[in-house]
Amino acid sequence: MALSQSEPSKPLTRRFVLGAIVLGVGGVVTGKALQGGASTALSSLGSGLAQYLPGGDRFRIYTVINGFPSIPVDSYRLKVSGLFLKGADLSYNDLLDMPQTHFDHRFQCVTGWSVPNVPWRGVLLEDLLKVAGPMREAQALEFYSYDGVYTESLTLDQVQVTKALVVTHMYGAPLTQAHGGPVRLFVPSMYGYKSIKWLSEIRAVSSPTPGYWEQQGYPVNAWTSSNGSLGGVI
């Protein structure tokens, strides 16, 4: 599978991101404005933080590369690989043809900010797994981004508990590039770094590798404080 990748910049450290938020360098953008096409007004700030647009529901857009990878919808592919009985290579339209799930749920960042009642739409990851059929030895999933750098993981138990969603739409419109479009993951009840953007591959594995930020100090278990008692660990 050919990936559309941007040249990686020097990776952001956890200290840099937290410091950027404290100092006000972190980009604050409008979720609804971005969904309306205003993402073209964004440009890179430093090593992967976007500039801001005022007002509305306040998202802060983080990337680990300079800018955003560009993946045309008509050439988008989601590879489903690893320990599955049936692998898959799904187009954007393939995802739209699968049963759709809609719900509103808060997006919570580990750095402290959140956006309430975000309308999400897409395919339940659990439904996608039923089609692919994880093998008995599969215990977890690894996720890969079209940016060529970012990775994440969930256990299969966490997939069931969280009702993770393979997202194609947000705020009633197709995902913008800045928000991880054409397709991203959203993991309710976990901090935002689990919700990988520009999703390119889902791989079933017997033992997962910690994701990008987890390798730099973030907890592998990313339950938000209100859901910290939920089960399932990596």
From TrEMBL:
InterPro entries (alphabetical): OxRdtase_Mopterin-bd_dom (IPR000572), OxRdtase_Mopterin-bd_sf (IPR036374)
Residue span(s) of domain Oxidoreductase molybdopterin-binding: 69-213
Pfam families, alphabetized: Oxidored_molyb
Protein name listed in UniProt: Oxidoreductase molybdopterin binding domain-containing protein
